[in-house]
Design brief:
The chain has 61 residues and is an alpha+beta fold. It has 2 helices and 2 strands; from the N terminus they run αββα. The chain binds iron/sulfur cluster (2 copies).
Length: 61
């Protein structure tokens, strides 16, 4: 899974919105009431949204 669901599943998303911009991402309130990205089934796992997330460290930089 090469998208921001990796971040939300890990509990690391702070809802900053930096990963907005892909048509496959919508922001919805999570269980705690904070906005969080939800990735739809059309995601191609290109990884662009993950690159925008400063709260995700992929170990490559
Ligand atoms: S950029 Fe990262 S922390 Fe910000 S909303 Fe997207 S997944 Fe959450
Ligand atoms: S298509 Fe790419 S930018 Fe869009 S949600 Fe999937 S991985 Fe992220």
């Amino acid at each position: 899974m090469n998208n921001v669901k990796t971040v939300t599943d890990a509990g690391l998303c702070v809802g900053c919105g930096d990963c907005k911009g892909c048509v496959h991402i919508t922001f919805q309130r999570n269980a705690l009431g904070f906005p969080a990205p939800v990735v739809d089934e059309g995601c191609t796992h290109c990884g662009e949204c993950l690159k925008k997330c400063i709260y995700w460290d992929d170990g490559n930089d």
